[in-house]
């Protein structure tokens, strides 16, 4: 076999090894594109500076007001929008809602210097991916944004998470109650039944007659589409109302 024949035999093997080695190389990940929206220039500049120093982030734009944020998001398609909750006279959460509708692939993270329960709960109801305080360290903000990039939703601390879950649980129970058609009083009656109270005991607690209790129980059975006390308790438990 001459040299040319040997080269022809080796070329497919070398090509195969090259392809295999290429496939083993780590894929190059593009930096996360961030749009910073804050009406305080010093804060905005500082955020942009520490993000720009990180190789896995790229600041694609910075704006100070909501309408410009929407326009720039539509133009630049950022991965994350870091948004102040207060933008002068504009409600940042209104802007967040518009951004989430206009740019569904972007992840909006609320960045605020003033925490309150109402804005926190509202932010997550409209679909925000994070709620951070400006008192967080640079390291904390970066860690939060990296978690958001991985698809997580981030909060400031465990206490805030507990508050949020409690509120969502309350809202969920209230929606379930409304859907069931039961009143708070009717749920209380079922709870007492579940505790083993008789009609007479329930009547005494509420200053009703036993006839009134029986009538109310019949109405509860009708709403729940059950036929007795045990089924009523089981159904309300299943709904998570008691």
What does this protein structure show overall?
There is one protein chain. With 242 residues, this protein is α/β, with parallel strands linked by helices. It has eleven helices and seven strands. The protein has a five-stranded parallel β-sheet with strand order 2-1-3-6-7, with helices on both faces. A two-stranded antiparallel ribbon has the order 4-5. The longest helix has 23 residues, at 158-180. The chain is elongated. It starts with a helix and ends with a helix. The relative contact order is 0.07.
How far apart, in Å, are the first and last alpha carbons? 87 Å
Helix content: 55-70%
Structural class: alpha/beta
Based on DSSP secondary structure assignment, what is the total number of beta strands?
A: 7
Provide mean pLDDT, rounded: 83
Poorly predicted regions: 6-28
Report the β-strand fraction as a percent range: 5-15%
Order of helix and strand elements from N to C terminus? HEHEHEEEHEHEHHHHHH
Largest β-sheet summary: 5 strands, parallel
Shape call: elongated
Layout of secondary structure:
Elements: H1 3-24, E1 32-37, H2 41-52, E2 57-63, H3 66-76, E3 80-84, E4 86-87, E5 90-91, H4 92-102, E6 107-112, H5 117-125, E7 130-133, H6 138-149, H7 158-180, H8 184-194, H9 199-206, H10 210-224, H11 229-239
Parallel strand pairs: 1-2, 1-3, 3-6, 6-7
Antiparallel strand pairs: 4-5
Helix pairs in contact: 3-4, 8-11, 9-10, 10-11
